[in-house]
Amino acid sequence: MIKLDLNHAFLKENVKDYQEEVCRIDESLVQGTCKGNDFIGWLTWPQDYDREEYARIKACAKRIQDMADVLIVCGIGGSYLGPRAGIEMVNGLYPTKQIEVIYMGNTFSSTYIAQVMDYIKDKSVVVNVISKSGTTTETAIAFRILKQFMEKKYGAEASSRIIATTDKARGTLKTLADKEGYETFVIPDNIGGRFSVITPVGLLPMAAAGLDIDAFMKGLSDGSGEYGDADLDKNPAYRYAVARRILQHQGYDVELFVEYEPQMQMVAEWWKQLFGESEGKDELGILPDSACFSTDLHSLGQFVQDGKKVLFETNLYVDQPAIDVLFPNDDKNEDGMNYLAGKSIDWANKMAAKGTLMAHEETGGVPNIILTMPGMSAYDFGNMCMFFFKAIALTTLMNGSNPFNQPGVEVYKKNMFKLLGKE
Ligand code: PA5
After folding, report:
1. What is the mean pLDDT of residues 229-250?
2. How many independent structural domains does the chain possess?
3. 326: CATH
4. What ipTM does this complex have?
5. Which of 94, 121, 154, 183 is 20 to 30 Å apart from 337, CA to CA?
6. Residue 405, ligand 1, Cβ within 6 A
7. Does 271 lie in the same domain as 294?
């Protein structure tokens, strides 16, 4: 369970004063009468998910592990960020035992595409193309290139090395997958892209990368209970949601999501999509930004400490690192670092976090929300997903906006299609 500490948040209103509003909104979520209610399938997914498909995901993941060195995950936005966040958080950035996962379909960069294609040319490859609409341009461009590569490299066997995760019936990708005989997995109609990491979108790549998806689902399901109470005293996700609204009333328009583990930088990217697309509408919302400390204390840290007071920080601390390292002694001590000899480097990381909190809070005057998760396991990732899902749903509904649509994302596409000459 994620712990919440609001003692450093400088809140000028009492969170509990919002209890009545929270109860009303929670009721509308549970009863399915809230704005965007056709996209709240994530709420009951831990109970409703398709067991037969789940077993197929596990079997497919095993097949991928047995036959490939590299899994290409081809998708963008909600069809990309979640699986990458989970895989990197749990496996770290340089895993040695798991299959290598490479991401495509998330950029128009010709250099990136060319370099990946060159990198994989002599490797054993499986492709998981992920697109709910089945028509997203970045993904479609990369997938055509990958499909031709796979057909040239594997001939008839290519179709057994390509897996499509898409809508159950609609879209170009679904039609193509059926025609080519690819194994397919379904993105449910009632779960939007940025909530879809809990569906085959996330489950298949995570399982193929060696994550324990049973533990992930257990964390998610436990989160449904732990963050399911309308009573603010019993629900840290809802208290966090209300605290954000209070801070916005106090004039803070930017939320800086801070983590102290480089392998959680994609969690921050995933969180930015979840929060930015959900509440950034109706000319409302808090701009989600992120930083990885202590790395970014040597750059952005200056602004946080002394710059314009536009932001508050939401720190995601981790109690237990995946691996700890003891700092070695050196008899000569020429670098003068022996004062740390025998100490844990994770302890030093935590002291850096403590010192940063004091600096930003006491002399910087920056409000800090502190979230602490037990570790970086698949269970913790699943649990964290439900925490942020519940928080963003409530906080956006408090603004009167629909948390589950993203009309703004479509605008650039219209211009781009015109410029690209799409009919
Ligand atoms: O949240 C969203 O809806 C978007 O970010 C989509 O996930 C992204 O555009 C990819 O869409 P699709 O899965 O249809 O290819």
Report:
1. 98
2. 2
3. 3.40.50.10490
4. 0.97
5. 94
6. no
7. yes
Q: Is 12 helix (H, G, I), strand (E, B) or coil?
A: coil
Centre of ligand 1 to C-alpha 77, Å, is 5
For 240, the domain range is 3-34+218-398
In a domain, 422, yes or no: no
For atom 2 of ligand 1, the residue with the nearest CA is 193
pTM score of the predicted model: 0.96
Does the beta carbon of 224 sit less than 6 angstroms from any atom of ligand 1? no
Share of the chain above pLDDT 70, in %: 100
407 in any annotated domain: no
Please list the active-site residues: 277, 298, 413
- Output the CA 112–ligand 1 centroid distance in Å: 20
Q: Does the C-beta of 305 come closer than 6 Å to ligand 1? A: no
- Residue whose Cα lies nearest atom 8 of ligand 1: it is 77
CA 11 – ligand 1 centroid, Å: 35
191-233 tens-digit pLDDT: 999 999 999 999 999 999 999 999 999 999 999 999 999 999 9
Q: Is the pLDDT of residue 423 over 90?
A: no
202: nearest Cα among 417, 340, 382, 59: 382
Q: Could you check whether the bond before residue 294 is cis, i.e. omega within 30 degrees of 0?
A: yes
Query: DSSP string spanning 44-69?
Result: HHHHHS-HHHHHHHHHHHHHHHHH-S
- Tell me the pLDDT tens digit for each residue of 325-359: 999 999 999 999 999 999 999 999 999 999 999 99
Do residues 8 and 14 touch, judged by C-beta distance below 8 A? no
User: Are residues 120 and 110 in contact, defined by beta-carbon separation less than 8 angstroms?
Assistant: no
Q: Rounded to the nearest whole angstrom, what is the distance from the C-alpha of residue 132 to the centroid of ligand 1?
A: 7
Q: Whose CA is nearest to atom 3 of ligand 1?
A: 193
Higher pLDDT, 418 or 153: 153
- Shared-domain flag, residues 142 and 233: no
Q: How many residues does the chain have?
A: 423
132 lines ligand 1 (CB under 6 A): yes
pLDDT computed for residue 123 by the predictor? 97
